[in-house]
Q: What sequence folds into this?
């Protein structure tokens, strides 16, 4: 931005060696004023399709009842699903979970139309040892009462190929993992806004292409590419949302941006209910991005990123626009603040080795990583398998997403009044017990009349799981010292991505024993909840800044050793300490985590 002097020449508004004090400007325009709220709505809208694509597989790959196709039924003038004809044409097998016999889904008898034409109904199954059993050589018949088509039906992902149905979701999460790394780096180079809208455009292209995939291999590859763009949209949006507001509103905007995944699930429920064909559904959820691309002209770049790149005049224009919309005046002094000198901690580069180099930091990191991994495994396991609960899958899926909103709000209340440690442990164990009990509230353990209980308990489990996810993010940011907070939260988020990749395969354990997936979810949740008791409480304490404070944070030491804490650290790390600390490395103060503005700290909430 320039100004015109008396001679008609243009000179920079900001003198050399000066920069905008954005935090001071927020004191005038407001931490989260009307201008920021308008821009936040755009960011939130851009993130909703991310949740839609991430949760779409229950409808795109809907699994339905099926059995071998028996074309001889039509040749004999019978309906394709004629009960008597199927009873004669299909072998019956015992379900090992329910101990009830049902027609085989993958085998048929060798028959001809003359046998069926002379069949006496009702047919009583007697000795069938001498009949020839075939694989489904004529394809499969699918129950299309609820879904007109799905990837499961179109590409015949049944019998020995049934595990492939879970591959699409796992590779989607692999794409999320890759995208979070690459787009995180790209956003630091070209800016948050450009990165986000590039990903929105790529998501549109890959999403539309997925709708026309001619085979399952190409479908999986394109789904991976859609997953790759997911974090390219979400991460920059989250960064902008937290960097354009004041510190006191970062938790609010961060939580609201996270809720975009559940909002996407709610929107997906309505769209999927109206469109029962997988290809048309995929096309519909992808074309939403056409409208979002057009919001480029109304979007905002992160002011803190612009300041880090020396684009002070662009920040001045943004502040002046915000002041105009918010109806306030910003004094000129805000635009002429002295540049903050770099400190030693600003100059040093930290990496993931620093958070596991010393014993106490390594122990805390292991417990944090475990909680991130487990909470993501369980969240996706419950969110993507509502069809397994019986009843109306659309209602189950809708409730599964709606339960996230009160869970996130309740978690904010509990961490404020009861602390992080008891909240995390309670939510993980509460959700874990609900998961363990769930399979025993359905037939054959309970009568069909009590079926609503088998739907309620998984929703209770997801409530606890979602609340735990909100807690562990805040708690992680507080447990790591300032100098490695970005690295710590970023490394934790990587473990959550691994959890997202593993989760679909946990559901395959139901082929061994029906209740096993829920027992795994429950057992892991209880284990992680108990492990969380070993982490220090951070409510109402000053957070650690240096590596030495981080190592001593929560460590109990004999009083005669409290005065010399540097012995536990390698010599290369001792120089980062600001001074000696007490046995906990903390004192009373503000417990609100202030995240630095690098890519690691802002990646974590994207793991839903």
A:
């Amino acid at each position: 931005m320039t100004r015109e002097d008396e001679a008609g020449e243009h000179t920079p508004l900001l003198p050399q060696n000066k920069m905008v004090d954005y935090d001071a400007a927020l004191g005038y325009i407001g931490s989260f004023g009307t201008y920021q709220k308008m821009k936040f709505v755009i960011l939130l809208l851009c993130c909703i399709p991310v949740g839609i694509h991430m949760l779409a597989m229950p409808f795109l790959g809907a699994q339905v009842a099926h059995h071998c196709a028996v074309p001889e039924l039509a040749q004999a003038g019978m309906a394709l699903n004629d009960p008597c004809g199927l009873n004669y044409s299909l072998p019956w097998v015992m379900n090992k979970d329910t101990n009830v016999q049902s027609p085989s889904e993958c085998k048929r008898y060798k028959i001809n139309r003359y046998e069926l034409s002379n069949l006496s109904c009702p047919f009583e199954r007697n000795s069938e040892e001498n009949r020839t059993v075939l694989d489904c050589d004529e394809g499969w018949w699918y129950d299309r009462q609820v879904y007109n088509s799905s990837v499961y039906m179109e590409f015949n992902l049944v019998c020995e190929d049934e595990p492939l149905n879970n591959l699409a979701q796992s590779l989607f999460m692999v794409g999320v993992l890759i995208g979070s790394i690459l787009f995180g780096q790209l956003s630091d180079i070209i800016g948050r806004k450009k990165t986000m809208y590039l990903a929105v455009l790529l998501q549109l292209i890959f999403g539309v292409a997925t709708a026309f995939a001619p085979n399952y291999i190409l479908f999986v590859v394109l789904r991976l590419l859609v997953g790759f763009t997911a974090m390219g949209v979400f991460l920059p949006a989250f960064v902008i949302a937290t960097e354009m507001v004041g510190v006191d509103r970062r938790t609010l905007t961060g939580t609201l941006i996270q809720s975009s995944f559940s909002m996407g699930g709610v929107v997906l429920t309505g769209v999927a209910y109206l469109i029962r064909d997988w290809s048309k559904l995929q096309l519909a959820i992808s074309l939403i991005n056409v409208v979002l691309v057009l919001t480029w002209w109304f979007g905002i770049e992160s002011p803190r990123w612009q300041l880090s790149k020396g684009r002070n005049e662009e920040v001045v224009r943004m502040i002046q626009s915000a002041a105009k919309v918010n109806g306030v005046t910003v004094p000129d002094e805000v635009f002429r603040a002295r540049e903050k000198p770099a400190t030693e901690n600003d100059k040093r580069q930290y990496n993931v080795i620093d958070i596991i180099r010393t014993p106490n930091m390594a122990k805390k990191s292991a417990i944090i990583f475990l909680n991130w991994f487990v909470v993501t495994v369980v969240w996706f396991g419950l969110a993507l398998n509502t069809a397994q609960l019986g009843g109306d899958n659309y209602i189950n899926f809708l409730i599964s997403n709606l339960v996230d909103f009160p869970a996130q709000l309740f978690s904010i209340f509990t961490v404020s009044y009861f602390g992080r440690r008891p909240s995390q442990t309670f939510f993980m164990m509460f959700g874990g017990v609900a998961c363990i009990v769930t399979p025993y509230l359905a037939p054959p353990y309970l009568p069909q009349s009590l079926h609503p209980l088998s739907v309620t308990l998984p929703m209770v489990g997801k409530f606890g799981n979602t609340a735990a996810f909100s807690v562990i993010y805040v708690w992680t940011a507080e447990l790591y010292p300032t100098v490695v907070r970005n690295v710590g939260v970023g490394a934790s988020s990587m473990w959550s991505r691994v959890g997202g990749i593993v989760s679909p395969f946990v559901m395959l354990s139901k082929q061994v024993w029906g209740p096993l997936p829920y027992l795994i979810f429950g057992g892991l949740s209880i284990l992680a909840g108990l492990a969380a008791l070993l982490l220090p409480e951070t409510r109402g304490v000053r957070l650690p800044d240096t590596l030495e404070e981080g190592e001593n944070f929560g460590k109990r030491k004999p009083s005669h050793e409290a005065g010399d804490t540097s012995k536990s650290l390698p010599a290369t790390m001792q120089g980062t300490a600001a001074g000696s600390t007490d046995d906990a490395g903390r004192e009373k103060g503000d417990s609100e985590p202030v995240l630095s503005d690098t890519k690691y700290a802002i990646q974590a909430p994207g793991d839903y």
